[in-house]
Design goal:
mainly alpha, two-stranded antiparallel ribbon, two-stranded antiparallel sheet, extended, disordered N terminus
Length: 153
């Protein structure tokens, strides 16, 4: 049985500070339970592909791949360390965005198999993407190739 604690307000320089359920820092929403209930819907809204597929008709495939990687995949990969441990339904929603982007690139139909398209693009699925990025970050920390952060006061 967990205890319930009352919500308390704080005071900083005579300014009242109220607690919130989520905060946005560097474009990443972090909520109190650290499950990304706020970040994932915001990310999904910013990643919705062109529903009328106008881009597909007006761009060559290599240009479309570059555009999708710049606008969609980069947002999925940005700060995805906060996505560790997100619920399966949020992973499925993020995966559906990548699947829609792959279908857009290859002009495939909605019910075509997605795995061959993801392999052609060399894209990992969402759980593997998160694990890969964490492994790369850990490797860079261990080898000393991670960015050096300095605390300035």
């Amino acid at each position: 049985m967990s205890k319930c604690y009352p919500i308390r307000t704080g005071c900083i320089n005579s300014t009242s500070v109220l607690p919130v359920t989520s905060v946005r820092d560097l474009g990443v929403y972090i909520d109190t339970d650290v499950i990304c209930h706020q970040h994932c819907p915001w990310l999904l809204l910013s990643l919705v592909p062109d529903p009328k597929r106008r881009l597909r008709r007006s761009l060559l495939r290599h240009a479309l791949v570059t555009l999708v990687r710049a606008l969609v995949v980069s947002k999925v990969d940005y700060c995805n360390a906060v996505l560790v441990g997100i619920p399966g339904y949020l992973q499925k929603r993020l995966q559906s965005v990548l699947n829609a982007a792959a279908l857009l690139i290859y002009s495939a139909k909605k019910y075509d198999h997605i795995t061959p398209l993801l392999r052609k693009l060399h894209w990992l699925r969402i759980p593997e993407r998160i694990q890969f990025r964490l492994c790369v970050l850990a490797y860079r920390c261990l080898t000393g190739t991670a960015p050096q952060y300095r605390l300035t006061l």
